[in-house]
Amino acid sequence: MQLASSGGRRLRHAALVAGQHALDSGRIVTRKELSAAYRLAQEALGLRPTLRLVLSELVANWGEQPWERLLVWPSNEHLILRTGLSERALRVAFRALTDLGLIVPKDSPNGKRYAVRDAAGTTVDAFGFDLTPLYAQRESWAGRVAELKAERQRIKRAFDEITIARRATEEAIDALRETYPQMWRPEMEQEYDALLARTPRRGTAMPPVGLLDAWSTLRCTVERSFFHAGNGGTTCRHNKDNNDSSSETCYSGFRKDEGGEAVPDGGRSASAGSSGSQDEPPEHEVQEHEVQEHEVQEHEVRETMTAAGRTEPGGRVRPSPGAAAQAEPVGGLAADLVPAAIREACPATMAYGRPARTPSEVVALGAFLRPMLGANETVWTEAVASIGPLRAAVAVIYVTQLYEDDLNRGGDSRIRNPGGYLRAFVRMVASGKIDLAADLLAMRRRRMGT
């Protein structure tokens, strides 16, 4: 049987190569199998609509004969009727399909397409188009389709990651500008706009090399700025090293005197200040942030006190009823009574497994709870310097209990930033706007129901 053109048509190398494909002997190819091969081929090669239409009609004319070649012989009139194409368009499509190695023309002596029958009328041969190359390369088509699907998945994942990084960067810039305007820089938004202009729309091609890395870098930069702004310029909430035994307190800025009272360790503080520890941020780095947030945090303290009915006309916080008769200023409150008052007024702080039986243990408990409020160590240093270590510890414990009660209450939280709340609370105690002893005893009475 003829494998390539026999005349009347220019010989093409692709036709000779395609003619080398053969079928398995003794096997009849069904139209369904040939159609499956056609679908794989059109997806693997990305055939344009005209070629798909013509090839589909050729496949539909396969009669499932037990031949060595898959020959079809539809007339041009039949194909024009089925496809709606002109005869010239059909010829262009035949040449393109031949060049792609999908079909091989088998021309008759007169250039017509027809079947050859024997004396009994059985079709034994035909002149037309050989579809054997289409079916014989089905495994190659399937492999190419798998590669294309994998490539599309890689492109989709790349654009998905870029979209995630872009949206996260946009949200981080907005949050930084609204929450910490002093940390926002116009260069961040300019770089965002430049990357946005470089980012193409989703398509069939991979995004530019390095675009995802650029988005990820900008996202990390903005989120790191937001993180440092929330931590007062430090790298973590609890920035004081503790490499001693787990039974030792995290707070080492005080020592016990002969009476067991916690007092400032002047020598240790001086040596630490002279050595310039890298774990503690310089004071000037946090002062700007503190000044900007102080008025907001003091407003939160006043809102909390107002909700409890604890303010007087003019904005001064009013001591609890009878507090003046029951408690003197904090410095006058007997030190041996403070631990018992703490245990009864602030039961939530006892759940951390830290004892509060002596004033020194109360100081250690306050130092332990300070980082849990998200307060920088400069808050504790300021509190000790302004109101003393014992009162500073009582303030931390008191604010911790207030925060726990606020969370347990449900609904909108009045204390949105407990670390900043603590700083404002300490400053109001130091200025005399809040009587710490009266507040502690009032909380104790509310807790005990007396």
UniProtKB/TrEMBL annotation:
Coiled coil: none annotated. Residues 342-445 form the Plasmid replication protein C C-terminal domain. Pfam families: RP-C, RP-C_C. Residues 281-303 have a biased composition (Basic and acidic residues). Residues 266-277 have a biased composition (Low complexity). Residues 16-175 form the Plasmid replication protein C N-terminal domain. This is Replication protein C. It comes from Acuticoccus sediminis.
